[in-house]
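batch job 7 of whatever, protein = SMP-30/Gluconolactonase/LRE-like region domain-containing protein
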Amino acid sequence: MSLSKRSMGILCLVLAGASVAAWAEAQGPQLLDVEPFAELPAGVRYPEGLAVNPHNGEIYVGTFDARQPASARNNQLLRYAADGRLLAQRAFAVTPLTGLGYADGQVYILNFGAGKLQRIPAEFAANTPVEDLLDFPQLKPAAPAARAVANPDGSQDQIHFGSSGMPAPNGLVFASNGDLYVSDSFQGALYRIANATRCKPCALEVLSRDPLLATADSLPFGANGLAFNADQSQLYINNAGDGRLLRMRLPNGEVQVLAESLPGADGLLFHDGLLWLLANQIDQLLGLDERGLIRVRAGGFQGLTSNGAPRGLLFPASSVVLGEWMVVSNLALPLTPTEGDEWEEQVSTWNLMRVRLPQLPTKGEPDHAATP
């Protein structure tokens, strides 16, 4: 078959276009911009957990103020309108808060400082009563079994974990049937609370004490953020100290490593086919597919504004989806006892940021590689 010069030129353009498209797709993650959404009230710091009311777009923020002495703390549950206006705040005094969730007109609260699961009406005000649902227990043994680590030279290490038995409820996620799943960062555990929106009193089931849920790293938080895949057959778990994204097939499958080198893997949610993970030690929001490949990246610390608020992301902790946006909490929490070595020490105004969600390409076939 012979081709004219014109036909050859058209063919070359088509092939060049296809090559450019393939080259562009192969370059790496989409990079997204971060912009301010809202600031915390004066005197309130360390925004950690987030939840959103899907009916009106209101956003709930819990703070993790664990300063010493305890009398210096000012923990709050905040309620913001979808446009970033502060609507209400409820004091929690000395007890830091971690994970939040919305269900059936209530905000569910992991009260880290009190070791409790609590809830409060979504339209709370300053004096709205808080309801206790259950106390998280001291588990026995206090820490999971040792973890075996294979080395390249054929040897093997054994990591033994210590724990004082202090409950550390941290991340939560609701299943569609009303069951609530909770992570325990210090005791290396996953819990399930059946019918959490209706039970009273509520019963706690220990779902797993796998050694992969614990950490011996300098960041002392193991199991952290939780998320389901689309059909809720897989539970994804962040291990913050180990910088790993884990997965567990429900109801009682083996805990497996999906992705590594994610320093400070904190808040986690599943949206639009991606696992959105906040790596708090590198100040980034990452969107990973279910094979563990980073498809989207946003953030990085970009300095402080004139009023001492972070620009970009600084120790981001949690995220929620609000329409076309993802809202992120800048925890901005100093970790080391040394003075002058962390930008978090210089923050004087704490804030929430937002990222416009990208338009992601759709795939024609299901991703079978995501199934173990």
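notes: The longest helix spans residues 5-26.
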